[in-house]
Amino acid sequence: MDSKLVVAGVLALDNLKTPKRYERKIVGGAGVYSSISSSFFTKTALIAAIGNDFPEKIVKKLGSKEINLDCVKKLDYPTFHWSGEYVGDMSQAITHKTDFQINDHYDWEVDDDYKKVNFTLLCNNDPNIQYKILKQMKSKVVALDTMNLWIDIQKNKLDETVSNIQLLFLNDAEARMYSQEDDLDEAAQFLLRKGPEYVIIKRGEKGATLYHEKVKKSIPCFKIDNFVDPTGAGDTFAGAAMGYLAETGKYDYKNLIRAMYYGSAAASITVEGFGTEAIMKATANDVTERFTKLIGGPGRI
């Protein structure tokens, strides 16, 4: 499979609780959400490790999509585990426990065949790992996603990594935390000065905003009635956007806007299911239908 996008990210088994539901050891992780959504658009190579407890049926499901699993290594340790919950309006996850021991035994080495792929997405992960992968890649466009934990405890390494990428994804709370600026426009300018050519700030139900020098463009989210679980929505957004960019091969302001609309469409599917349930069943046509409505096609909302 001639992959056009490399997605490097964690595959996990999560204990997830929302106001309406609780499940143990469900499939999750940024690598799962991002690679599924990118595969709607392009052939994707996934870089990750799974443990001896990761369900084989999920491996087969991923393999049945446009996802190359050659670089997914199975190790004789437990899969990465996250335990957390959402309360109230579910705007922020509360983390109870993580088990990342598998990373002590996984080298995150990229096979030579994939180092020259033109587009790479470094999913939310320890910046030391993101930097290690980044230094192996010869991609023209490297995008990175992050979270509040790394901004808090690994800011220096995150700074170093961000200074070497072209596109930064993060949500509004993370942008404010990283920049120490309350105003998102000011936060974005701070982040652009770190090195990326573009910054995309995800704003949940308010959509997302693209920043480039003195130019910005906001897009809406796709309005839904059945909001179930926000887990993985941001990862889905980033994966879909990067999948579209990689398939077209065009990395410019106009195409980034279009990619964001696809990201918003895909993310709206993820939040309609618990964990990966909805996005795993979705098709490229489902995403395209919502994209068409978002940009003003028939049935625009």
Give a description of the structure.
- The structure is a single chain.
- The protein is α/β, with parallel strands linked by helices and about 300 residues long.
- The protein has helices at about 30-40, 55-65, 125-135, 150-155, 155-160, 170-180, 185-190, 235-250, 255-270, 275-280, 285-295; strands at about 5-10, 10-15, 20-30, 45-50, 65-70, 70-75, 80-85, 95-100, 120, 140-145, 165-170, 200, 210, 215-220.
- Strands 1, 4, 5, 6, 9, 10, 11, 12, 13 and 14 form a 10-stranded mixed beta sheet that branches.
- It is globular, with a radius of gyration of 18 Å.
What is the gist of this entry?
This protein has helices at about 30-40, 55-65, 125-135, 150-155, 155-160, 170-180, 185-190, 235-250, 255-270, 275-280, 285-295; strands spanning about 5-10, 10-15, 20-30, 45-50, 65-70, 70-75, 80-85, 95-100, 120, 140-145, 165-170, 200, 210, 215-220.
How many β strands by DSSP? 14
What is the 3D shape?
globular
Rg:
18 Å
Which percent bin holds the helix content? 25-40%
Major sheet attributes = 10 strands, mixed
Number of separate helices: 11
Low-pLDDT residue intervals, each spanning 5 or more residues: none
Pattern of helices and strands: EEEHEHEEEEEHEHHEHHEEEHHHH
Average predicted local confidence, pLDDT = 95
- Distance between the terminal alpha carbons, to the nearest Å? 38 Å
| β-sheet strand percentage | 15-25%
- Structural class category: alpha/beta
